[in-house]
Amino acid sequence: MKRIAILGSTGSIGTQALEVIAEHPSEFSVEVLTAQNQADLLITQALAWKPAHVVIGNEAKYAQVKEALAGTGIQVHAGAQALEEVVTLDSVDIVLTALVGYAGLLPTVKAIKASKPIALANKETLVVAGALIMPLAREMGVPILPVDSEHSAIFQCLMGESHNPIEKVILTASGGPFRGFSWEQLAQVTRAQALKHPNWSMGAKITIDSASLMNKGLEVIEAAWLFDVKPSEIEVVVHPQSIVHSLVQFEDGSIKAQVGLPDMKLPIQFALGYPNRMKASFPRFDFKLYPSLTFEQADTRTFRNLGLAFQALEQGGNKACLLNAANEVAVAAFLEDQIGFLAMSDLNDYVMNQGTFIANPTLEDYIESDKLSRIMAQDWVDKNRK
User: Which positions does UniProt annotate for NADPH binding (predicted)?
Assistant: First the structure.
């Protein structure tokens, strides 16, 4: 039985992971649950799953969680330091990092250094510091098992192909709710419209990133590190049906694809159960219900975030760290109706290209770059509010 630490158990990935675990009670147990702010849901989950440890990131909510779980035997902790410590426990067999954004970096580093396999749903960890994370994982002999549907698809396509060189990986994108929109149309997009994804049910931040194609840009950077491919060996193709989750092309021209309905429980289960495929009750894909699967070129001129991500990957160093920090501030500002939809790309471009470039950053450099980029981004928001 694998004992799992779920970092971000109250989010979309975390809650679906618990559904997967519930279907396989003889395979998995819950050792650690964590949340940043959703104390009520964390308490409900803890009472249902009886983990050994619970962490509430927001220290102001510690007393509430502590009181609610008194007498259960569950150890309650609070704050970022506690989050970094619970992943190192001997009783943890695998860490599912489902935190949102940069917050996933340091706990993931700690878990790798403690030789814990990582089920990675927090793409920003590799976006920010892939040059540090992947060598560290290799040094510690720690597998990084991708949970993003696209990277899980590529990972599955590469199983049994370790001796065959990759010609390119092809990431599919749904195109989001604004596929085919012009700049003029995007300028009028509202928060409510951007939060309605056509195919996937996700948290607010990743849904906005998907609408702006920044999510696909972050996935491009993540893919480069996970699969050791160059920017020129990564292609993004818009596939509105979200049935082909991604593809790999080999040097003989053959292409392998992973296909299925858009359901995050499948890649979550695959990562947690790896190397075994476990029986699942998810709905099955039926070709007869999808007589037409379509593919088209991604529009990087209109959706500039995707182009910025390729640029950051090409330039290397801390460029992707600058871009990620700017984007987290940009999305938060858009969700607060402080800036418009297109302004997010303007902000990302500004910070990525005006922030201090470091060619060979250390972990401390990444931390400082993230901090300074957020300050720069917030200043930009303050000066360019609606």
Answer: 10-13, 122, 124, 203
Burial of 233 (0-12, 13-18, 19+ CB in 10 A): middle
In the three-class reduction of DSSP (H, G, I as helix; E, B as strand; rest coil), residue 241 is classed as coil
pLDDT exceeding 70 applies to what percent of the chain?
99
Q: Is 13 annotated as a binding residue?
A: yes
Q: pLDDT per residue over 12-60, tens digit each?
A: 999 999 999 999 999 999 999 999 999 999 999 999 999 999 999 999 9
Burial 367-382 (b: 16+ CB within 10 A, else e): bbbbeebbebbeebbe
Answer yes or no: is 148 a known binding residue.
yes
Helix axes 319-335, 304-315, angle to 10 degrees: 160
Structure tokens at 88: 């190192």
The tens digit of pLDDT for each residue in 116-160 reads 999 999 999 999 999 999 999 999 999 999 999 999 999 999 999
Annotated binding residue at 10? Answer: yes
239 in a known ligand binding site: no
Any known ligand binding at 373?
no
